[in-house]
Design goal:
By secondary structure, the protein is mainly β. It is built from one helix and eleven strands.
């Protein structure tokens, strides 16, 4: 009987310590992967390109359901290599049990090598369709597939609306 009570108290303590995901003070480590293929054309010429990006990240909840964090990303394509530091802020809105809507604002900067020349980079983006599923209290799987972004690369501006163009998948470990 005594062992059963100790086991129940230990399980309750474990549940209480892990059931506070997305509360102020929580932290996580994780990362994101992106892959995109695009085709564009002008003046009768068609070009196709693709890129791959990997980005380890860290986040800290400054308030319940509000996370600030950042990632260091490395992106490679047929004509570019880019490394960037991107701070972000994310809001976690519960949809149903274990599923969250997670809109995200990112502001980043870095350096890239484009077709042999070095360029400075500034980006501002808003991930509009981002979600996270938490199968357990300590583990989350995130995805983002609609974003609005502004980029400044070596004095060249671009504004992009990406819907299903460059989806990402991420994995998070909460502690």
């Amino acid at each position: 009987m005594k062992n059963t009570i100790i086991l129940l108290v230990a399980m309750a303590a474990l549940f209480v310590s892990t059931s506070n995901a997305q509360d102020k003070g929580d932290k996580y480590l994780g990362g994101n992967l992106k892959f995109a293929v695009s085709s564009s054309g002008s003046n009768g010429y068609m070009s196709t390109g693709s890129y791959f990006s990997i980005a380890p990240e860290f986040g800290y909840f400054i308030a319940d359901r509000v996370k600030v964090g950042g990632e260091i990303s490395y992106e490679v394509s047929s004509n570019a290599h880019v490394i960037a530091l991107t701070p972000n802020i994310v809001y976690y809105q519960p949809i149903i049990d274990k599923l969250y809507y997670t809109p995200q604002l990112n502001i980043g900067g870095g350096v890239g090598i484009y077709s042999g020349y070095v360029a400075g980079i500034f980006t501002l983006s808003l991930n509009l369709a981002s979600f996270e599923y938490k199968p357990t209290e300590k583990f989350g799987i995130s995805t983002s597939f609609v974003s609005l972004s502004y980029s400044l690369i070596d004095k060249t501006n671009s504004i992009n609306f990406n819907a299903l163009y460059s989806p990402s998948i991420g994995f998070h470990y909460y502690f």
